[in-house]
Amino acid sequence: MSERRLRLELRPSPLLASALVAAHAAAAACALLALPGVPGALLAAALAALGAASAWSRALLRAGASVRALELAGSEAIVFLASGDSFRAQVAERRYVSRLVVTLVLRHPVRRTILVARDMLGGDLFRRLRIWALWGRLPAVAAKQLSA
After folding, report:
1. Cα separations (Å) of 108 from 44, 55, 78?
2. N or C: which end of the chain has fewer CB within 10 A?
3. Does a cis peptide bond (omega within 30 degrees of 0) precede residue 14?
4. Is pLDDT of 101 > 90?
């Protein structure tokens, strides 16, 4: 009997990118207020650059190490990167699931956290990902029944 797998092709998320840039811009503004002068300006510039880099890599999926697709089955995931590489990984039990995002922690062979925003997948696939993240397995019903 073959195990069911869920393949998720991730799309870039402009909303997540905006949130990352806004959060880093707020941190940069706080750094400028708390540390005036050249050191504060350098710290603010570094925080702004970090926000742009994280948005580019994690939300817009433009870096070579960006996760472009996931294939889930049981507690295992096959991670497909934008560079064309792929690897198998164990997904940790600790997961965060909400209406807007799902966070998956990979623990073996690499330690990495993957954040999947709602707009990175279609509604039905995001719902199936949430179910998998909560239960650790795919539902036994047909996909048509889930969308009802």
Report:
1. 35, 25, 11
2. N
3. no
4. yes
